[in-house]
Specification:
About 35% of the residues lie in helices and about 35% in strands. With about 350 residues, it is an alpha/beta fold. The strands form 3 sheets. Strands 7-8-9-3-10-11 form a 6-stranded mixed β-sheet, sandwiched between helices. It has a 5-stranded antiparallel β-sheet with strand order 2-1-4-5-6, with helices on one face. The protein has a 4-stranded antiparallel β-sheet with strand order 13-14-12-15. A hairpin with a 2-residue loop joins strand 5 and strand 6. Helix 5 runs parallel beside helix 6 and helix 11 packs antiparallel against helix 12. It is elongated and about 80 Å long. The termini are far apart.
Length: about 350
Amino acid sequence: MKTMIKIEGLNKTYHLKSGNVEAVKDVNLSIEEGEIYGIIGYSGAGKSSLIRCINLLEVPDSGSITVGDQKLTWTEGGTMKVIKSSALNKARRGIGMIFQHFNLLDRSTVFDNIAYPLKHSGLTKSEIAQRVKELLELVDLTDKIDVYPSQLSGGQKQRVAIARALANNPKVLLSDEATSALDPDATESILALLKRLNKKLGITIVLITHEMAVIKAICHKVAVMENGYVVEEGEVYDIFANPQKEITKKFIGSASALNKINSLIHKDSPLVRIKDGELLLKLVFEKNAVGDAVISQISRNYNVNLNIVLASVEVLKGAQLGSMITVISGDDKNIKDALDYLRSCNIKVEVLRHD
């Protein structure tokens, strides 16, 4: 598959009166054409600075950025080079962007807001009108063409912003916390729209968020940022199934039905207390796990008891990912043999508590 966005050795530092802030540090990313690529991190992680560098709203200090076949920044003879302004304007028309707070023109109608980026496109008035109508159909807002932003809900405002970002038929759509200001229903609606646009238009979407639930809902791949660095990246399923970094585990815990387990352990809840000879386990059943009646099988075959405390099943990109918190009890050797059997079935076993 063709690479749509290539970022190599990217760095960005803000020079403030209070001191220097290194926002992006040695970031390397490759985003394929047609992907929905999520970038997640807490406030100050550098994710918004990174996405703003992609269309040069922020000029990086070093590193190369290539979008499509156009190199926007590069190093030549040890010096940072940036594409000429005339070429940059053309390149930006191929990169749409939507923001957390919509950035609509309050005194302009929905029609005028969407038509705004087409003013200098060379299209006639009738062609612009036709394009606006097409875009409104695309985002399901044909009946709002003559209203003002103040008359719209948050979700409708974001749909107008998405239509405006698509006005020049971009190949890339950048989304900077586009659902953060929306209620849950509107968030779900906007994510469904982005997913539909990705499939219908083949547009590459780079989505910035601090919510793992958003990543889980629509992204193909994800990069996790912390203190300016990309600390972990990969397929969404793989990251959920086997997170490596503590920050990633924290994000995944926030989007999981099992996220209460650490709190229960910390508070020594009766649900997670164990007796002599017992273990508190976390079991993860990945898509390649042999899971047919495995719990009842080990109870019968290894003479152990399992008490299920919590359980969760996710469906990520059409594949199941199951997790379970359970207390296992029995003879030491039987427990060991049972756990070895679970591992042989490609089930990840983590001992959370033991006597």
